[in-house]
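Q: What would this chain look like folded?
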Amino acid sequence: MDTSAGVYGFAAGANTSAGDFGFAAGAGTSAGEGGFAAGFDTSAGDYGFAAGEGTSADSYGFAAGVNTSAGEYGFAAGRDTSAGDFGFAAGINTSAGEHGFAAGWNTSAGEGGFAAGLAAKGADGSFVFADNSAGGTPFNRTNIPNSFSLRVAGGIYAEIGTNVFAVSNAVTRR
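A: My prediction, written as structure tokens:
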């Protein structure tokens, strides 16, 4: 049951360590300088935050939940989520590359990409949204970088100024 803490740091629990001004509590937790780690098997880099089980956050990152990881300045929350540096991932089984955004269930976004909804899978620089009409079948656009892709069974409706654009198995414009 080893614990260690740096200057003004706090460590409590089995196999915990905290850097200067850091906080670590639980079992198998570690926090860097000014970092916060709590739970089971969590780690936080300098000024990072990690809480839950099996979570890790790099410097200035935030990770909370179960089996989540966040890169530098990244944010990951939920279960089985990961976010790259400056990325954001939230939900269940989501992942986002550097500067990417992924939210929902079973979604993934590439670097600088956006993926949301149910089983939306995007490449670098792409925007992908998938509704739940396919019952979890992946909407995979990982081989088409820098694209805009939608799976929307109910159609698309847009008002731009006084113009209306609608797509629902047929294109109409007013």
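The radius of gyration is 20 Å.
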